Amino acid sequence: MLLISVREVVHLCALGCLTFIYSAAGAFLSTDYFAHVADKQAYVPQIDCDVKAGKIINPEFIAKCPPGCQDVKYRVYGTDIYASFSSVCSAAIHSGVIDNTGGKILVQKVAGHSGYRGSFSNGIRSLSLPRWRESFLVSEGKPRKGVTYPSTLEYSSSKSTAVKSEPKKPEQDLKGTKTADTINTSEKASDQGDTVRREYQTTPVPTPATQMATTTPTPTTTTTDPSTTVSQPSTTPAPARTTAAPAKNRPGLHRVRDMGSSSVHPAYASVVAAAASKMSSHPRFLPTSILRPGGLCSDFILSFLSLGFSSKEELNTKPLESISQGNQNCKVDLSFLMDGSWSIGKRRFQLQKRFLGSVAQALGIGSAGPLMGIVQYGDDPSTEFNLQTYANSKDLRNAIEKIQQKGGLSNVGKALSFVNKNFFLDANGNRGGAPNVVVVIVDGWPTDRVEEASRLARESGINIFFVTVEAAAQNEKQNVIEPNFVDKAVCRTSGFYSLNVPSWFSLHKVVQPLVKRVCDTERLACSKTCLNAADIGFVIDGSSSVGTGNFRTVLQFVANISKEFEISDTDTRIGAVQYTYEQRLEFSFDKYSTKQDVLNAIKRISYWSGGTSTGAAISYASEQLFSKSKPNKRKIMILITDGRSYDDVSLPAMAAHQNGVIAYSIGVAWAAPDELEAIASDPAKEHSFFVDEFDNLYRYVNQLIQNICTEFNSQPRN
Q1: pLDDT (tens digit, 9 = 90+) per residue, 516-537?
Q2: Region (Disordered) spans which residues (predicted)?
Q3: How far is CA 45 from the centre of its chain?
C-alpha cells in the first residue's frame, strides 16, 4: 500500500500547478495577454492648445495636439528652443513639426536660457524673453530608440493629471474675431470633469534601454476608480541615483496570512483567468476545472500568492511609514551645495556631512514641510539626490553618510549656475509654492567667479545663503579671485544670508541659526520675482472713440498680460478701472485670488462709452486701487488710451509717481505722445508705448513684461 504524506501531496500539487502555469503563460499569455498590455501602454495622451510645457512634470514625452492651435492667444516665447511657459502645441506649429490640423509631437525638457529670440514662422509670431528657468525642444512625434514614454502626463498643479479617453473636438479658430470669447480663460477642463472617464498614473522618467541593467525603474501604477475621478497620489518619490540599494524585506513578507481573507494582486488573478480561458480549446493540458474558482490549482495558486509576495511595484515602493509630513512651519525647497574640493581634506569633509545630517534632523524633512537635496561641487557639480528622493530626516541622514568626496577645485560659480538651470525643476520635486533656497558651504573661498551666476539665480527667485568656513586670513586675501564674493552672491547684503564660521570644528554651532533663517519665509526676499510681487492696476479707456470691437481687443491685451503673472492673494494681484468722463472700479486687488477668476472677470467687463478724462481716471485709480496696495508689493499702473484727454494728466500722474506707483502708458491711434510721456514713469521711453491700431497691441505684451522684470531686478540689494 502506497503511503503519501500530506507534505508530499502539497509538494506534488505545487509542482504540477506551477509547471502548468509556466507552460500556459509561456504558450499563450506571452503573445496575447502581454500584447494587449503593450497596446494599452502605447496610447498617446492628448493635450489642449493652452497647455504650457512648464506645467507638465515629465521631462520627455510624446503627446497629440488638437486642431486649431495656430492662434495668437496661445503665447510662444523663443525660436527653436522655447521657454517652458510657452504653449506646447503652438511652439510645435511655430517650429514646423505640425500644422494647424494638429498631430503627434515629441517634447524634451532642457535647461533654461539667458535669452529667447522671437520670430514669425508658420503663421505664429513668437515673442522674445530675457531669460527663463526651463526650456523645451519640439520634434516629430516618433519615439527615440530605447526610451519608453508615459501614456499619461503628470501636471505640476496636482498629484496626477487626467487624460481624456475620447478625442477632443477641434476648437473654432478665433483669430481676428473681436468678441468676448477670444479671451483665453481655460474653462474647458472643469466643465468636462463629470463626463470624461479619467485615468491616473505616476509616470517614470524615460529611461534608455542601455541603462536598464544599472537602474531601478520607478514603478508605474494605474488606478481607475469607477465611482470617482479623484486621483490616487503616489506616496513614493523617485530615487535620484542610477543604482538603488536592494529593497528591504517588508515586515511579515514570509508570514503565512489568513487564507480566508487573503488579497491577491489583480495581475495574478487575471493571469489565472486568462490561462483558464485558453485551456478550454487545448485538451492536451490539464482539465480547466482545476483553474475554476475552488479548483485545486486555482486555490493553491491564489493561496500561494497570498503568502505575502508582492508585485514588482510594491517591492520597490518605500513603506508608508517612511513618508513624513515634516515641519509644516518651514515649507521650503532647499538645495545644499557641499564643498567636495581637495582643499577641505577627508576629516573636514566628514565634519561637513555630520553638519548636513544635523541640519536635516533639525529641519524636520517631510512632504508638507521642508524638502532637501544636495549638490556636491569640485571641478564640476553633480546632484547627489534631489528634492523628491527622501521624504523624512532619517533616510536623508543615512544617505548623507554615504556621500563620497569628489575632489577638485572649489568652483562655486559653476555650481550655482548648475543649480539654477537643473535643480529646481518640477521633475526633480520642485513644488512651485515653496520658496527655493540654496545654501552654499565653502572652505575658504571659491576658485571661480560667482557674481554673474548668483545674479541669474536670484532673478529666478532663488534665495542664496553662504556658510563660509575658515575664511581667508589677511595674508591670504591676495589669493581670492573675487573680493567680497559673499556680498556679490547672497540674496541680500544685510547679513541675514551669510554665516562665517572660524573653524570646521565649530560648524555644529550654526545648525540652529541657519535652520531658523531658512525657515523664516517672510524674510526670503529673493522668492519675490517680477512675476509674483506686484499689485497691477489696469486703467482702461472706455470712450466712444474706442468702439465695441476694439474694446474687446483691449481686454484681450489686458488678459494676455495678466496670465503671465503668478496670481494669488500672496503673489501678484490684479485690479481694473474703466473710465470715460466718469470712472468705474471694475474689480479691486483683493477681489480675485486665482488667475482663472481674474481672466473671467476681465472677460465680463462691459464697454461703457463716453468722453475721455484720463487725468481724473489716474486720480481715481490712485485712490481706489493703489492706496489699498500691500506694503510689500510693487505698485504698477498700466494705462491704455486711444486719444487726447479732456483734462490735465500731468499733476495726477506726478502725484501717483510720488506715491510709489510705477506707471506704464500705452497709446493707440489718436493718443497724444506728450500725454503718454507725462503719464509714464522715468525714463519715459521705457514706460510708454504707441501703436497705430488696436490689432497691434499684442506686439507689446512681451516688451511690457520684460521692462517690468528688468526694472524689478535692478533694485538695490541692501
Answers
A1: 999 998 888 888 888 888 999 9
A2: 147-252
A3: 19
Which grid cell sits at 365? 524633512
The CA distance from 477 to 188, in Å, is 62
77 by Cβ neighbours in 10 Å (0-12 / 13-18 / 19+) ranks as buried
Residues 6+ apart with CB under 8 A from 241: 385, 389
Q: Are 356 and 383 in contact (CB under 8 A)?
A: no
Distance between CA 231 and CA 235 in Å, rounded? 12
Given a contact cutoff of 8 angstroms between Cβ atoms, the answer to whether 510 and 467 are in contact is yes
Question: Quick count: other Cβ atoms within 10 Å of Cβ 631?
Answer: 5
Residues 468-500 have pLDDT tens digits of: 999 887 777 788 899 889 999 998 888 999 999
On the 0-12 / 13-18 / 19+ scale of CB atoms within 10 A, 119 is: middle
Q: Does residue 111 contact residue 422 with C-beta atoms inside 8 Å?
A: yes
Alpha-carbon torsion, ordered 66, 70, 71, 72, to 10 deg:
140
Question: What type of residue is 395?
Answer: D
Identify the helix (H) or strand (E) that includes residue 712.
Answer: helix 701-713
Report pTM: 0.48
Q: Residue type at 194?
A: D
AA identity, residue 234: S
Q: At what angle do helices 511-518 and 345-363 cross, to 10 degrees?
A: 50
Q: How many residues comprise the chain? A: 718
